[in-house]
Amino acid sequence: MSRYEREFETGWETLGKDEATTRAYAIGVAERLGERNREELKAIYAEMDSAYHRSMVELAYEEGRNEAKAAADPNSDDGDAVWAELVQGEVTTVDPDDIPEPKRESLPEALDSGELLDKQEVDSTEPVDRPEFLDR
């Protein structure tokens, strides 16, 4: 029995669009982990009644494949951990000491807004004040 079959019931009669995209995502993850289930994916795809929903199913499937590829450690065969993180939603905690420090604390100077866009302090009476060149 595959991970997908343990997680999801395969004897469904109808699926909503949200359930279909969730299942397609899981099939994509499972396929990247070496468990092909194209029949289920085709059945889910056929269940969708519009081109928009079929494209959402296809996107969810591709996203599952891509995220599983990114999450899988090439030096490890721990597909269960990848499945648990991506499909079952188990959260992996990271030690704060392992988080890399940012290299830059602000935007590069070329992207800085500069002083021209800064809000100037405006005196509400300044436009009607007597010009300085008229003062002695």
TrEMBL record:
* A Pfam cross-reference name: DUF8057
> Residue ranges of region Disordered?
89-136
Show the ranges annotated as biased composition (Basic and acidic residues): 116-136
Q: Which InterPro entries match?
A: DUF8057
- This chain belongs to the protein called Uncharacterized protein
